[in-house]
Structures are given as C-alpha cells and as structure tokens.
Design goal:
elongated; three-stranded antiparallel beta sheet; 8% strand; mainly alpha; single chain; 6 strands
C-alpha cells in the first residue's frame, strides 16, 4: 500500500474498496494503508482513473463550457426575487465549476472532476481526509462544500425583530443537509469556523471537525460562529434541495415586499405578485430523488396568507 501511494498517478487518489466489514466504500490510499496496518482485509475495486470515459467525458465538457461562460460564482445571498441564478454557487453544478475554476490544463481539470465524482457519494466527507493538510486537492473539497453558510431566514419562525424575521417555512428536504464546522460546541474554547476559513491553520476537512445538519442549526441559537466565514460550510445541495431553497427564498422575498421593509425595491405590483404566488402555490420538492414531503400544509398556509395580504394591498392602492 505504501508503494501504491508513493508511485500512483497522484498521491491524492481515491479508490472504491469492498470488505465484508464495511461493504463498499470510497477511501484514500492513505486511509487504506492505515486500515491494512490494523489488520483490515479488503479489495480495491477501482480508483478515480478507472472511471469510464463514456461516463466522464460528456460531464467534463459540460463543466468546462459552463465555467468559461460563467463570469464568477453567484452569491447565495443575492436577491431571490430578481436573480434567476440565485443560489447557483450552492449546488452540485456550482461545485463542479469550483473544482475546475483554478485548474491549469485539461488534464488537471479531468483529474479533479474524477476525484469529485468519486467523493460525492461518501456518507461522511471527513472520512476522505486524515488531517487538515488533506489528501484531496483544495479545489475538490470546494467542489463538495458550499463556499459559505446557507441563508436560512425563510425557515426561521416569524418574529417582531426585523433582522431575524422569518416566514416559518418547513425545512423539508433541506433538514438533513450536512454541515461541517471546526467547532460546534459554544462551551469549547474558540469559535466555529468553516473548513475553508483563513482563521484555520490549513484549509480542508479533518477527522476532528464536527458534523451537524441544517435541522440542528435551526434548533439552537447559541452557536459561536466566526464572523468572517459564517462558522461552517454545508454539503452542496442536490438539484431538488437547491430548487426548494430557491422557492422558499422567493416566497420570503414576497413577504418582505408586502411588509414594505425593502425600500430599495421598485413599487409593489399586485398582479405580478399574484402570478408569482400562483407559481409557488403548489411547489413541493420533486425530481428523481426519493422525497418525503410532509410540509405541504404549512407551505400552503404561508402562500394563502400572502395572497390575502397581496389582495388587501391591491385594494388599498386601487384608484
């Protein structure tokens, strides 16, 4: 194993392995070596370079073309109501673009995307690294995790505090999204940082990092997060999760317009709001993923409430 690690195509290579104790897993050669030293018995099925060209080539070309046309990452905190690309840097497609953005040459881009494809199915991303210096390129880790925290305002409970006022929307498919932080215990000395924060000694995931979920974030408010990075990075959102995240922000954006809080916006157009609400009314997570959507009643409750407010606003401004 040491010879494989020292003389393989890349020291950061990942492999699919199989054992009777752990089943099918994705591990680095360094992790496999440590297991072998402890008596582990397993089979290396394939590594990243073994992934078939017929599967990878179309994706590599698509990512390369999209990255060239993209002027830069889109902020996950931009205007949900006016920006069709809102949250694009939080999804899987944005992750692939991040993995190749700084790669030099086609060979480097292909290598990073092969590693990204293999790493995406790992249940716990901390298992890919054995130290903060890491065995994966930083670009691949950026392809797996969001560049910053999620804006969870639409899912917070309604409040009289305008800075924290939410719409009380159900988390739905966003609830189990994984959150990685260097420290999630406010009682422990030091703030929590994103694995990519400059305040950490080296960027990247480590086995000692904490693993949470988005549900955990909303359940507590005693986090001691770094003000520079937001305190954590989330696992990149699937297409279904990103679609729901966008829809929730659009609904919350409508509530903000009706509240009159966002004075920088154009005047509210009741008919335009009505059409947007109709589009969002029957919104629910879908796609190819096995989704158990149990928040339909709350979603419709919020939509109906906004419809009533929009109608009152229309009657108030009618000549």
């Amino acid at each position: 194993m040491r010879a494989l690690r020292n003389h393989s195509y890349a020291a950061d290579q990942l492999s699919i392995v199989f054992s009777t104790s752990g089943g099918a897993e994705v591990l680095s050669l360094q992790a496999i070596e440590k297991r072998v030293e402890q008596g582990w018995l397993g089979v290396i099925v394939a590594d990243a370079s073994d992934l078939p060209e017929s599967l990878l080539s179309p994706w590599i070309k698509e990512v390369a073309l999209t990255s060239e046309a993209d002027e830069g990452p889109h902020s996950g905190h931009a205007s949900a109501g006016q920006d069709d690309s809102f949250g694009a840097d939080l999804g899987l497609a944005g992750g692939a673009q991040a993995a190749v953005r700084w790669a030099h040459g086609e060979r480097a881009k292909e290598h990073d995307l092969r590693l990204l494809a293999m790493a995406r199915g790992v249940p716990d991303l901390r298992s890919l690294d054995t130290g903060r210096s890491g065995v994966l390129p930083v670009a691949v880790r950026e392809g797996l995790l969001t560049p910053g925290p999620l804006d969870l305002t639409p899912f917070r409970a309604p409040s009289t505090d305008r800075r924290r006022r939410g719409s009380g929307l159900p988390l739905g498919v966003l609830g189990p999204v994984q959150i990685y932080a260097t420290n999630a215990d406010p009682a422990f000395e030091g703030k929590g940082h994103s694995p990519f924060c400059r305040h950490t000694r080296d960027r990247g995931l480590a086995q000692s990092d904490d693993l949470l979920s988005v549900s955990d974030l909303l359940a507590r408010d005693d986090w001691d997060w770094c003000g520079k990075c937001g305190g954590y990075s989330a696992r990149r959102l699937t297409d279904t999760q990103l679609s729901y995240y966008r829809a929730a922000h659009r609904l919350h954006d409508i509530a903000g317009q009706l509240d009159g809080e966002r004075t920088y916006r154009a005047p509210v157009e009741p008919e335009a709001l009505r059409k947007r609400l109709e589009e969002l009314a029957d919104r629910e997570p879908g796609g190819h993923e096995n989704v158990n959507w149990d928040g339909r009643w709350r979603w419709r409750e919020v939509v109906d409430g906004l419809r009533s407010r929009a109608e009152r606003h229309r009657l108030h401004i009618a000549p």
